[in-house]
Automatic annotation (TrEMBL), chains A, B:
One of its GO terms (cellular component) is cytoplasm. Residues 48-184 form the AAA+ ATPase domain. Its EC number is 3.6.5.-. It catalyses: GTP + H2O = GDP + phosphate + H(+). It is an enzyme of class 3 (hydrolase). It holds the Pfam family MeaB. This is Methylmalonyl Co-A mutase-associated GTPase MeaB. SUPFAM superfamilies: P-loop containing nucleoside triphosphate hydrolases. Belongs to the SIMIBI class G3E GTPase family. ArgK/MeaB subfamily.
């Protein structure tokens, strides 16, 4: 694979090259990993998209929202990528966004690019690959990258670590159900959007919005927010109402943060975080070679049988690993 | 330090040598770590104590229970060690059991050994050190090792990974408060002990015991339990009532598991687990040398400033780390 050529095609915005590159970063093969790393290094960090994290439990109309919101942006001439971090894919290999027919109009839009969640064995692996896919989308010149997730906290945390803005999508609900949103997720949100503010649910949506606006006012003020943020608002993705207002709010917030230094500081902290996570993952990847796996299994068996003491067995294993790396390097 | 001599003294049951050895395993210094590892290797895995994990939130009378329970065992000629895993020590450096006056009679008992939780920066570090301290207590010929914790789930999980039996200590409570115990912790328990079954609280304690007995019956049957387990019972640590019955139950359960192969299987699985955790910790410890810290900080700064791309910076760092290890090794 010609990495320099692939980088050029990505920088020119070729969707097929981008799709192939994302497949490369998602691969677990060592040679693919080396190529993916080379590609990321070649592309560098010059271009920036607006990265929007988006969380919502099943049933809030997330696909409809992304389709309507994405189409509004592409109609305005913007290029929009949609990626996903699916915590369940770490277990089952299944993925949200796997079925592009959920957003079939956006999927056919030449200015949009939709990619399902990578399936990896750990949420950490899913997250690291998605962060790299975001970097590829930025290098490909996308203006907006939406990073979708659905989870119970952990996946929101990792998506927030790769997003400039975090949007929490909710459905209209009675007062008691307000408790269903974990405080930690509320605290991450820059914008809470109550979807389905249409038909019979409209009045409930307005009440829900008021409830969350009240709840947001009770949270501790964050330095990175101007007055009036985080905000709660209503939209109807189905009827295309409220979407321009949501976009305006996101842009206003982004502009304020850029002007006040929070934007750069957040990006710098995130870059540090992913660098350090990637270092740790690379160190632990030494355990994944066939030789290391075999040695680990043999010693693990001796430890289980009580013929080896665990701590000193671990020392011996790590020393042997260092020596074999030195010989092969 | 003469490790062979220290090992001999520990095997002879010398408490001062044991205390010094635990200080050694708790140390973060690389030379101490090497000595501690050598010591653990020398002592091997021959002797076994009954390891009892013990969890209870503040206010359930945990110290009083450990003191009364421990004294009952030492009066019966048994040697008892008490260790602790304190999740808060990972943050604050503070520790439960730090104040031995909480159990002053047991602390003065020549057949008892009490040791506070190590203070480390990660719960994982606290847990690994405590697991090694348990191994030292076993090598020193203790019959029973009590591993105390207080937490909200995570510390119970690590204590369960180094215990043969897990005892959950609770206070008498009304029906509504039953919900306060997380399901995951309930599922870990082999024995639920309602303390303070004395005075005004006696009737409440009996009702609480019945509630938990009912709740335990609703849990999924575990292969490692004979009929009637896990059990809920009442004790009064203050009035020394119910403690022999609790001990009998623990012994009955332990005997059944030994006879049916679950004892060995659990120990084997735990040994594997700690071996693998120690391997991972040893790999990540490569980041803790002064040189590695300095290199990591410099690259992290370049990544934060956007002059380096995170994934390829991580690759370069790990490659350099491997080379410097090869040269120094």
């Amino acid at each position: 694979m010609d990495i320099a050529d692939m980088a050029k095609r990505i920088a020119a915005g070729e969707r097929r090259a981008l799709a192939r590159a994302i497949t490369l970063v998602e691969s677990g093969r060592a040679d693919h990993r080396a190529q993916a790393t080379e590609l990321l290094a070649t592309l560098g960090t010059g271009r920036e998209a607006l990265r929007i994290g988006l969380s919502g439990t099943p049933g809030v109309g997330k696909s409809t929202f992304i389709e309507s919101f994405g189409k509004m942006l592409t109609a305005d001439g913007k290029r929009v990528a949609v990626l996903a971090v699916d915590p369940s894919s770490a277990r089952s290999g299944g993925s949200i966004l796997g079925d592009k027919t959920r957003m079939d109009e956006l999927a056919r839009d030449p200015n949009a690019f939709i990619r399902p969640s990578p399936s990896q064995t750990h949420l950490g692996g899913v997250a690291r690959r998605t962060r790299e896919a975001v970097a590829l989308c930025e290098a490909a010149g996308f203006d907006v990258v939406l990073i979708e997730t659905v989870g119970v906290g952990q996946s929101e945390t990792v998506v927030a670590q790769m997003s400039d803005l975090f949007l929490l999508l909710l459905a209209p609900a009675g007062g008691d159900e307000l408790q269903g949103v974990k405080r930690g997720i509320m605290e991450m949100a820059d914008l809470i959007v109550i979807n389905k503010a249409d038909g019979d649910l409209k009045a409930t949506a307005v009440r829900t919005q008021a409830d969350y606006a009240g709840a947001l006012r009770l949270l501790r003020k964050r330095a990175q927010d101007p007055d009036g943020y985080p905000r709660a608002m209503t939209v109807s993705a189905l009827e295309n109402r409220g979407l321009p207002e949501a976009w305006d709010a996101l842009q206003e917030l982004a502009g304020w943060r850029r002007a006040h230094g929070f934007w750069e500081a957040t990006r710098a902290g995130q870059a540090r975080y992913w660098f350090e996570e990637t270092v740790k993952a690379a160190l632990l990847a030494q355990l994944e070679t066939p030789q290391a796996r075999a040695d680990l299994a043999a010693l693990s068996q001796a430890v289980a049988e009580g013929t080896r003491e665990p701590t000193s067995a671990a020392r011996d294993f790590v020393q042997a690993l260092g020596k074999s790396a030195a010989q092969s390097g």
